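User: As part of a screening pipeline, I want to sanity-check one entry by hand. Below is the sequence and the SMILES for 2-acetamido-2-deoxy-beta-D-glucopyranose. Please return the complex as structure tokens so I can compare it with the automated output.
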Amino acid sequence: MAEGFTLFLLSGMLMCGLLLHTVSQHGANVDKPSKKPNFIIILADDIGWGDLDANQPEEKANNTPYLNLLAEQGQRLTDFHSPASTCSPSRAAILTGRYGLRNGVTHNFAVGSVAGLPLSEVTLPQLLQKAGYYTAMIGKWHLGHNGPYGPINRGFDYYLGIPYSNDMGCTDLPGYNLPQCPACDSSGPQVIRLKRSVHGGCYSKVGLPLIENSSIVEQPLDLWTLTEQYKSTATRIIRNARYNTRGQPYLLYIALAHMHVPLAPPLPPEVSAAGRRPDDSKVYTASLREMDSLVGAVKSASDDTDKDNTLIWFTGDNGPWEQKCQFAGSVGPFMGKWQTSRGGGSAKQTTWEGGHRVPTVAYWPGRIPANTSSSSLLSGMDIFPTLLSLAGVTPPSDRRYDGIDATNILLHGEQTGHEFLFHPNSGAAGTFGDLQTVRTGKHKAFYITGAAEACGGATRRQQLHDPPLVFDLERDKPEETPLEVETPEYQTVVEKITRRRETLLWDIATDKSVSTADYSTDASAAPCCDPRQAVCRCHTQR
Ligand SMILES: *[C@@H]1O[C@H](CO)[C@@H](O)[C@H](O)[C@H]1NC(C)=O
Ligand SMILES: *[C@@H]1O[C@H](CO)[C@@H](O)[C@H](O)[C@H]1NC(C)=O
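Assistant: Here is the complex for your manual check:
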């Protein structure tokens, strides 16, 4: 009976937690300014847990000095998980605080998607905007680009970025990928082809658009200038917030193009000077350093303006895209060996640790204790309740949430976190959204295993496990050897998680606000600034 109630209680407790927090904040605010905090969320794309130097100091890499500084002045969250292992579901869960089975987004949207994150879902920026925040977004949206589905209509006052991944459209100067994608066709009549061309899975007909607010301002986008555009826009927004005459706090959500291929990094001088295609092995780290310096610029703009009142939260949307070989990031020790020894990849698109354990740092001078780390089990879904709690906003009570308020972990060093955390299938074969893997404490159970494409193309079909495979992540970070089924340890874990999984599925089935996403596609839904031009070519003066 206790289990049956726990989940309902949890969602109840979440609300209570928020209310209590609001109340206690009023109580404690005697000596503190009542200003609402600013929030900067930086979401990297396809970054690996091992890409953050501070996660593996023994490797002595020096690719992320600014992120290391953020960690040294803030808190590193070492057991933090993206809510899904691919772009759209992960982003939808971050912005709604709910699993894909509730918010409807269980796999990626396409260039021709007519819809996006269901309009019945309530987003974080929407709630903060209503509470008086100025809300801005820079970067990849990937939650539907047409009409009401775009960021401007989902709670953001300002938007600059790409509507989906940077490989979902051609560019005139291709970046680094595997295989190399061809440049945009520059001649011939416009034919909007939604299918990827035979050219190694690259899009070649619809140019990658850059969107400001709701308008295409550049198509095809010059990938090689994107970092600079994001950097100058982000720092402008942060600096302008100081002069905001309405005295509004702000939310700035930066969803970076880094580290998703195609990569377009500034290359080391010796490579550029040679005037030839550089050594591929240098491209990923050059790009990682470029991302890191962008994070550094954001931190420094924030430090110069409203330092003590701004929370910066850096994390990733899913693990590395392993099939891209030398253009993919590092999973660190989380190698998913049970899977890789049988064939196939174990990072992005899978529920192996490499797919969803992401490098995460939270920084808030004077509020988050400096140079600390927490191994609390946390998820990107927790950003939603945590920021709302810090802003004193209560989310609508007509639906259930899966994120937890991590305020006390961030600010007061509490080592709590999720008692159970589910990882949905979001890319590998099988049913999208299926809660195929569960974490509790140091244990992780797989009801279903599945592989992504590995470097070299190997893959492996999904496999059902009854009884489930259970790994002890403390002893076995590479998820190599499951526990013996006969052991008491195994029996206890499986009993616990089986009950909890049933409870959660029941909770979702009885949630009155479950949304269904429309995944239909149509050629006319592709963003195109000038249909008379090949690749929808146009540039406007901004
Ligand atoms: C986007 O909105 C901002 C105001 O928030 C405005 O200054 C800018 O001109 C708009 N850009 C476009 C392309 O409409
Ligand atoms: C941060 O902590 C590490 C390890 O605990 C220590 O070596 C380092 O000196 C600390 N850095 C600062 C700036 O206090």
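Points to compare against the pipeline: Residues 2-28 form the longest helix (27 residues). DSSP finds 13 helices and 17 strands in the chain.
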